[in-house]
Amino acid sequence: MNLADYRRAARAWLEENAPHDDPPGTDAISRAKEFMAKLYDAGYSGITWPAQWGGQGLTQAEERAFAAEARDYTLPTYVFSIGLGMTGPTLVDRGTDAQRERFVRPLLRGEEIWCQLFSEPGAGSDVASLQTKAERDGDHWVINGQKVWTSVAHHADWGLLLARTDVEVPKHKGLTMFVVDMHHPGVTVRPLKDMSGRSNFNEIYFDNVIIPDEHRVGEVNDGWSVAVTTLLHERLSISAGVGMGGSKDHPASVEALRRVLDTSDPLVRDQLVELHIRSRALALFNQRLSQETKAGIFPGARGSGAKLLLAELTLFQADLATQLVGPETALADHPLAQALSMAPGMALGGGTNEIMRNIVGDRVLGLPPEPRVDKNVPFKDLKVGTQA
Amino acid sequence: MKLVLGEEQRQLQESVRSFLGSASPLRKAREGYDPQVYARLNGELGLSGLIIPEEYGGAGAGLTELSVALEETGAALLPGPFLATAFAAIALTATPDKELLSGIADGRLAATLGLPTGDLPACDGTSVSGRLAQVLSGMEADVLVTPATAADGGAVMVAVELTAPGVTRTALDALDITRGQAEIVLDGAPCRVLGARRDDGVMDRVCVALAAEQLGVMRAALDAIVAYAKIRVAFGRYIGSYQGVKHKLADMHNKLEQAESIVRYAAWAADEAPDELPEAAALAQAYIGRACFEVARDHLLLYGGIGYTWEHDAHLFYKRAKADEVLLGPPRIHRARLAELLEL
């Protein structure tokens, strides 16, 4: 099938099968699973993944064609996004054949939901300083510790877990990656209420959780290189979604603000012009990155620059909008109060602004790295987390 | 919408960049206009005729190609009347004149565009009188193209040979030492009326052309300070390894990414989507004028004391960026235009 035919077929399938509305209700997960199964059976899940493990074995061209068509719909694929964007590709890249055979197809078909378990209360930007322990006991491992900021964990069947297996070596060299059963009785998932009042992520406690050795991903103490694979996939999936659609409905957009403000006031007008300039500048940058990708120029770390700009714009926009609209935005249920409460999330999730600036500086501009004081120190002698 | 250069445009970019790298390296920028460089630029590369229609001996290319060339002349801080001639060529494509267009295309004529801020010069059909306070490259240009008021009160475009009697040119002491300005007083100077002055996107295209030069200026300033941050050591470390420096450079890079995206968009709009051009042009000046100056300023500051010296090139970028930012008027006019176009 040539690309134009592929795209036409995808459009027809989406028109027929994509949900046109998403009624709220308790069975949202089961409906999402039903849709995912249909998507997989039609050949649109795992388009570029190897056919051997359940993917379609097609190229980026087909994937882009489908994504372009899917942009006009809101597909209920959110709970599968960690599996599809991060943990699944990691297993395809680094898993054993038995793991690929066991996990990839159910993941693509939406039968099993995945989460990613890297960050800890004491290890955020510096995730390699994590302290959750994995101790070997014969042919299995025993896990104790705590993870945090874990999206969709309350729905997850499986988690990709990074844990410490050796404290005698420097921090990057004593980590190992595992697949953990989220239904194990030693796993406790607690929703975290964020500053906007919503609960979109969780903290997870591991209390003597058992993992068979065949669920280890990569070699013992080589978990960092596996994690780098996952993080690479994470950044790709975030920057691919950056700045896509929906901005007109945002209560702090120029379009929304002009409807409620007196734009005969030149000061108001100029602030809206500033917001327009910043929004357009970023939107055009994102479109250029996407056109470059289509032309075969891989954006790489420049996507982190776009993510940084989106975080800054999100904060600026909510702040400006509340200033322009005034006292009513100090009431919690005002849409702009909500926007203000949610705004810091973009600057923290997927890497803080400071980490993004480091990435742009190091990998785009090629600046010298900062000297590392932790590089050759055994983990047990290292200061980690929050020290009084 | 096309925001990525095509293969031929990349070749143009590469050939202009490598030509200027050898023919007009930065150390020549403060020596002023070198007609020999222009002879080769216009002869070997045909840059002066880039946007001039083929029927007048030009290449018939669009603002996209002109932007590519201007980005490189901006990065080189090329002295002389290149930008001024491009402005005049943009105006002349709206009110075509065979002699002038073919003269510019084959590199015989350097021209400039009058951007009067007060009263327009008065034209009686064959001669023109008035004063233009600041004309870009006014001493180097052979011909001035300027709006003027006709005897019937309408606005016309006229061309004046700058060596003619009745023309008094005075070189001004410009902030930007790489490119001059002149005061031009016309006292019954002979002129040719090119046609009625029409509002057909000339000033929008001028905005886009200037933004392309500014993109080059900011790119070169950022490249220079990034290179320095990799070799300069303080407290036993390369300064580029300090987050205080690195994070500033990352922010400057992000400004450059957005500026390039806007220039590509505005040039595409000029060539392919005239409906979008007014807003794109105002956006280009409103964003890039500021961004270019901020990047040039921060690049100078990051050099430390050496960047404040006359001998160092940093102030050349800083001053060119400021001169460009205010070239078409106080920058607020671009923001006001945006507000008007957005019907705010």
TrEMBL record, chain A:
Which is one Gene Ontology cellular component term of this protein?
Answer: plasma membrane
Q: Name one Pfam family in it.
A: Acyl-CoA_dh_1
SUPFAM superfamilies, A to Z: Acyl-CoA dehydrogenase C-terminal domain-like (SSF47203), Acyl-CoA dehydrogenase NM domain-like (SSF56645)
Instruction: Tell me the cofactors it needs.
Output: FAD
What positions does the domain Acyl-CoA dehydrogenase/oxidase N-terminal occupy? 6-111
Q: Which terms does the record give in the GO molecular function aspect?
A: flavin adenine dinucleotide binding; oxidoreductase activity, acting on the CH-CH group of donors
Q: Which InterPro entries match?
A: Acyl-CoA_Oxase/DH_mid-dom, Acyl-CoA_Oxase/DH_mid-dom_sf, AcylCo_DH-like_C, AcylCo_DH/oxidase_C, AcylCoA_DH/ox_N, AcylCoA_DH/ox_N_sf, AcylCoA_DH/oxidase_NM_dom_sf, Mycobact_Acyl-CoA_DH
Keywords recorded for this protein, A-Z: FAD, Flavoprotein, Oxidoreductase
Gene3D superfamilies in UniProt: Acyl-CoA dehydrogenase/oxidase, N-terminal domain, Butyryl-CoA Dehydrogenase, subunit A, domain 2, Butyryl-CoA Dehydrogenase, subunit A, domain 3
Keyword Ribonucleoprotein in the entry? The reply is no
Keyword check for Oxidoreductase, yes or no.
yes
Give the UniProt family note.
Belongs to the acyl-CoA dehydrogenase family.
> By its UniProt entry, which PANTHER family does this protein fall under?
ACYL-COA DEHYDROGENASE (PTHR43292), ACYL-COA DEHYDROGENASE FADE34 (PTHR43292:SF4)
This one is known as Acyl-CoA dehydrogenase
Tell me which species this is from: Nonomuraea wenchangensis
UniProtKB/TrEMBL annotation, chain B:
Q: Which Pfam families match?
A: Acyl-CoA_dh_1, Acyl-CoA_dh_N
Q: Which cofactor does it need?
A: FAD
List the Gene3D superfamilies hit by this protein, alphabetically. Acyl-CoA dehydrogenase/oxidase, N-terminal domain, Butyryl-CoA Dehydrogenase, subunit A, domain 2, Butyryl-CoA Dehydrogenase, subunit A, domain 3
List the InterPro entries: Acyl-CoA_Oxase/DH_mid-dom_sf (IPR046373), AcylCo_DH-like_C (IPR036250), AcylCo_DH/oxidase_C (IPR009075), AcylCoA_DH/ox_N (IPR013786), AcylCoA_DH/ox_N_sf (IPR037069), AcylCoA_DH/oxidase_NM_dom_sf (IPR009100)
Listed A to Z, the keywords are: FAD, Flavoprotein, Oxidoreductase
Q: Which GO terms describe its molecular function?
A: acyl-CoA dehydrogenase activity; flavin adenine dinucleotide binding
Q: Where is the Acyl-CoA dehydrogenase/oxidase N-terminal domain?
A: 7-80
4Fe-4S: is it a keyword of this entry?
no
**Acyl-CoA dehydrogenase/oxidase C-terminal domain spans which residues?**
208-340
Superkingdom field: Bacteria
Family, according to the entry, reads as follows: Belongs to the acyl-CoA dehydrogenase family.
Annotated protein name in UniProt? Acyl-CoA dehydrogenase
Q: Which organism is it from?
A: Nonomuraea wenchangensis
